[in-house]
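Suppose a classmate hands you a notebook page containing two proteins, each written out with its sequence and a corresponding row of structure tokens. How would you begin to make sense of it? This section walks through that situation. The first entry is reproduced here exactly as it would appear on such a page.
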Amino acid sequence: MKPIYFDNNATTMVAPEVTEAMIPFFKEYWGNPSSMHTFGGQVAKYVDEGRQKVADMLNCHPQEIIFTSCATESDNTAIWSALQTQPTKRHIITTAVEHPAILQTCAFWERQGYRVTRLGVDNKGRLNLDEYRDALDDDTAIVSIMWANNEVGNIYPIKKMAEMARERGILFHTDAVQAAGKIPLDLADVPVDMLSISGHKLHAPKGIGLLFVRKGVLFRPFMRGGHQEKGRRAGTENVPYIVGLGVACQLAKDSMHDELTRVAALRDRLEKGIVSQIPDTLVNGDTENRVPNTTNISFRNIEGEAILLMLNQYNICASSGSACTSGSLEPSHVLHAMGVPFKYAHSSTRLSLSRYNTQEEVDFAISKFPEIIATLRSSLPSRTRLPLP
């Protein structure tokens, strides 16, 4: 049975068009784009074409794109560069609901003596702009806030927050991994200084990412040892994956209307179909302002891992919180920051769709969820099934 894949915030299927575009660069055009000879040098134009396609999706200049291995590298590079170019500034602002790529990096710098402000959120995961404004000060080197949350899908007011930082002369970085390909990203309109994207979250392969660095922003490389990417990121260019990322960005741009309409409708159908049939459920996050593919639902008194195991019996792929922290038995740090009660937070199930999902898959999952939750609740001690006071 073909898997029903509702875990696209963890990784996505490589689009067939992407795979097809990459194959020649494994078989025919495998030269080093930095070589002086024609065989290698001819490959450089395909790197440029990939860079242009990425820039077209983001509405920026292609030379503002630096190719990396992944968004985690891009995030680390952004913060590193901001601190190295501003050695007298010792303050970083982020949020309590960031991806570990940012939270753990900020924790590292905190151990080096930097001051880190982690903005809180309300019970729907929304930020308070007054709290943010008060946190900005003359010692702030960089603000790093995700464009969209990987667990609950919330979209944050990045344009407004970047504008507020710019008014104070403070660098602003956003991890846009969960926003890219799902909502329009117009960097001619949104004044972020740096932005991270990971290829495998928008139907490109794992092992390729990018960092946007706006023209005029002082920059120091994190990866050293070569002249590649105009001296901004050392290491031989991963040509097949750069080509693939370019095609994936082109497809994402062309599919944006489908993402915002059909995929959103499928997500809503899945969410309503589950919640309407099962009592004691909670939809986590801001349902009025989220990416179109994501829902995060909690079922009182049930372990999220048990739900995933039973879904897996039907070949339904989902996740409990972030795939990057799935080995932890602790409730999601995102739901904890939102104040979700423990009896709900432990059972969070994230369902994240893509343009490759179908209504038939959604309806099959809807038909199985009540049975799964009923089975798990029937195995609970009777006292845990009593209504909460």
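The notebook's second entry, a different protein, reads as follows.
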Amino acid sequence: MSETIAEKASATGSDSGVMELLHWNGMLLTGGLFVTLVVLEMFSHRAGDTAAWVSLLLLTAAIALLITSADFFIEGAKGLARRAGIAEVVIGLTIVSIGTSLPEILVTSTAAYGGADDPAMVDLAIGNIFGSVLVQITLILGIVVMVRPLEIRPDWLRRDGMLMLGAVVLLSLLLFWNNNLTRWEGALLVILYLSYIRWLLKNQDKIRSDELEIVPDVKTQGRGWTSGAYTVMVIIGLMFAIYAATQLVNIASEIAIAMKVDPAIVGMTMSGLGTSLPELTVALMASKRSQGVAVGTLIGSNITDPMLSIGIAAMVSPLTISTSSVPLIMKVVIPATIIGVTVCLLFMWTGFKFNRWEGGVLAGLYLLFLVLLEMQRRGYLVI
């Protein structure tokens, strides 16, 4: 039905507006999944201890809502970008990457606020940031590439890829300095990130011309919707995606805490993976329609998380790693993240494309990291 509306609008020379959007099958499906998730959550609260089958239904509904809302968001963001004449890689590096990083921003800021009373929350916040970067650049990018190989434009790699590595290394150095991140250091990270965004927007015309030289058929118009309809897509898609991701994180965290797992490990795995699900769904959807948005989303998020997300959290409350988690974070978590980003960039340099086997290697690196964490938890790996 969505294609029919768009096609009819194109045939008549007009674009469909917000009222048509409200009757779109995709909108109705997303709304239905949201209502289903809310009802299941209310049922689980009334029932007290959540039954296994209720948790399974919650997870299923949350994943389904995340997928449909991410599709909504990416279509809205691309539509607005095209109408404004913004290069698609820029929209991926800015609006989409910030939007998909909102779960990380919320999780880390909330954890930082509670860190004054519970130091373990700081470990969760720091673990969540590095976990998100690692899972996005290895497992998520690996899955996307195995589904659909991606071409990497050299200018993306020289500009954004190296900044991604620099952001991770800078954050790591600040934490190595005294096992903490002060407010002014957080402010420095935020200022650097905003300067990068300002530079992107200032140079968007050149970036767009580079895209048109490589892909001459890049569309400059929307796909049958008005600007108001695209804006509604972005807002609804983003709100639903954040809500769905939050539910996934809550369920996963409760399970991990019940199993008495280290908070840093919870942040690296359950929370890191959960808050990265928007990037996975958006990148998968975008890979079929716009490689600029797909690559821009993942690279942009891995610039946003170690600069904006953790920077805001540190400004809310200084972050100090607990003594018990220092060896795990400094000797396993941070080195694994830097290695993952470096291997990813090396693959990008080889012919400026990602092949399926390289995606498999990246996903394998994340699985190896999980094995090392389990060995450390069981006492087989002493750090």
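A careful reader of the second entry would note: The radius of gyration is 21 Å.
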